[in-house]
Amino acid sequence: MAVSKQLVKSKSGLRMVTTNASVKSPFELDEPEWEADNCCTNCNKCETRFDFLKRKHHCRRCGQVFCNSCCDNRLPLPRFSFVDPVRQCGPCAVITKKENEFFHKNLKPFLNGGTFTVSVNDNEPELGAMYICKLTSDHQTITFEGGNATPVDSFTISCIKDLEILLENSNDKAGVPIGIVVTYIGKGDQIEKVKLLVAATPNKKQSIAWIVALQKGISMINNTNG
Fold it and tell me: Is the pLDDT of residue 127 over 80?
């Protein structure tokens, strides 16, 4: 589904936002409230007192006030839909750099999808059936395209409660993933489980990249929600 967006100007900069909040990407965050200038006499980091020469600057991620030295990082901030790199404080810049790796490296494989054998709620997978699992363009839903195979229900990533990575060598925590078990809240608030195993196809690496993308995307959302 195509997502309609519009360019808006805020006090923090230009942002490309969705016109319909109901299809807003779960990876996106709302712009923070700015700390009031008249409440800040000192930098929130180094505590240097502001004056005519030592000016106040707002971090576009947390909204707090800092001096220039403590808020001199200009980085892309896709989670807030900014068009251009924006000013951020040191701690926020560290978080943003880590999140930007997801947008630069993992989001595209997530959207492109991977090929898996699928079993639902511990049932045996359908013999010979393979599904292309992918994230929808609005970043909200995981879908299963299986040709003539038995349909598998799609689910929103906001309903995901737990991920279990299946490794080629279970004793090697940094090993190659061969599958993933997703626990989510389905219809009627029922707890559902779907097990995806990487299919033995030429695009096996793409499927492994999809698992990594799912894990990193959900981790980013969960870390934001505290």
Answer: no
Residue 200 gets the label, from left (phi > 0), alpha (psi -120 to 50) or beta, of: beta
pTM score of the predicted model: 0.87
136-162: b or e for each residue (b if 16 or more CB lie within 10 Å)? bebbbbbebebeebeebeebebeebee
Query: Residue 222, Cβ neighbours under 10 Å: how many?
Result: 11
pLDDT in tens, 72-125: 999 999 999 999 999 999 999 999 999 999 999 999 999 999 999 999 988 887
